[in-house]
Description:
By secondary structure, the chain is of the alpha/beta class. The chain has helices spanning 45-52, 67-72, 82-85, 91-96, 111-123, 139-153, 169-184, 196-202, 218-224, 226-230; strands at residues 7-16, 19-29, 34-38, 60-65, 75-77, 157-161, 188-192, 205-208, 214-217. The strands form 2 sheets. Strands 5-6-7-3-8-9 form a 6-stranded mixed sheet, sandwiched between helices. It has a 3-stranded antiparallel sheet with strand order 2-1-4. β8 and β9 form a beta hairpin.
Amino acid sequence: MSDNVLVRCQDLSVGYEHQAVVSGLNFEINPGDYLCVIGENGAGKTTLMKTLIGVIKPISGSLFLSPEIKKSGIGYLPQQNNLQKDFPATVMEVVLSGFQHKMGFRPFYSKKERQIAMENLHKLGICELAKRCFSELSGGQQQRVLLARAFCCTKEILLVDEPVSGLDPNATESMYQILEKTNKDGVAVVMITHDVTSAIRYASHVLLVDKESFFGTKEEFLQSGLEAAGKHFVGGHDHD
């Protein structure tokens, strides 16, 4: 096991109200990893992500977060929903909200935070949208805005839950390219996806969440024969 691990889960069980959705998870995330999380609807993938970001407490097992992660936080891009799409705020307000967990009792965002927010908009090619109302944007534009918000949360690790769901092919390919570049820039990426083909294309590691879970490198996953079994994990949103 790596000494500079960002996240390590050992015999982890996650769920709600003391009822486990999935148990026996063993995996770790290191700097520079690109981990794709696959599995059937209801298998526990989104529940796992919510546990990693601290929204849900683990039911049992061990969840280790590095001091760097505890200090800087985890960037999180959740699944799109209708409430999110209709959010009544400007693009800049949405992006700046990524700093809220670092503000403490400060009532206003700092000049540095505003600068970083604009840099993240520039990185995603959407500076011109800064003053636009978030609800007026296309699905692809909204995903970029929410990704810019996630970038404001952390420089270490980014969790994305079905980031291309509902996007057209061009926006889908653009999102994958952004995530790939983000990973190459040194940010660990953890992506829930039903698109196993793309998971294999971009991943360094794969986590299969199932009754018998699997964790390993992309090469180990391909050699395991589980790729064919994973092909049927397609369509729909997770609600686990």
